[in-house]
Amino acid sequence: MNALIERVAPYATHMIRTDHAHVLAAFHQYQTDSAPRVKKGLVNTVCLALEVHAQLEEEIFYPAMRAVSDSDFLRKAVPEHNEMRRLITQLRNMEPTDAGYDGTFMELMRDVMHHVADEETTVLPEAERLMRDRLGELGAKMTRRRLELMAPRSGAMATNMARSLPATSIALAAGLVAGGVLLGNRLLSSRPHRFGSGTRTGASGRWL
Ligand SMILES: [Fe+2]
Ligand SMILES: [Fe+2]
């Protein structure tokens, strides 16, 4: 299993960018006039995805970066994740019909978009410059950890996706449940990835 994960896992920076893309796509699907059930499903799905993503970065990616860089972003990244967690808790304690629900989700969107922009323009290019030879190993570690983190949450994820719009479900399923279902399929088929000039060109961009 571990050897297979090492073969099929995306590079850490590819995984991070693709997670960002899926969450940003989900943000764009939030509409203030959607049915409360749909809003709740979408928000819960996004919150779960953000929590897992932040944990993977904090446990695996940021510590590896700190060993090679002292960038300002790395100092503020965890406090920014914590602010995101505060807003997530607030949203979980609210109903979509509450007056502040839309505003709180918009605040989360603004914070995450700002954080993602910083991450993608500073730390990810730096990672690719300073620790290129470790990105495959870190991607495999993050994939293994994602599987562990998603396993107990699969029931909640299914409920949230059933509540939200089909398009949302499709977009997010590709990125968020991928660590479990789609990776499982890849492992079962165990087809090797193609590699080209040091860059992993397999399914990383498609399913994580
Ligand atoms: Fe990130
Ligand atoms: Fe982050």
From TrEMBL:
**The protein's name in its UniProt record:** Hemerythrin domain-containing protein
Q: Transmembrane helix: is it a keyword of this entry?
A: yes
The residues forming the signal peptide are none
Give the record's keywords alphabetically: Membrane, Transmembrane, Transmembrane helix
Matching InterPro entries: Hemerythrin-like (IPR012312)
Domain Hemerythrin-like: residue ranges: 13-126
Query: In the record, what lineage is assigned to the organism producing the protein?
Result: Bacteria, Pseudomonadati, Pseudomonadota, Betaproteobacteria, Burkholderiales
TM region positions:
165-184
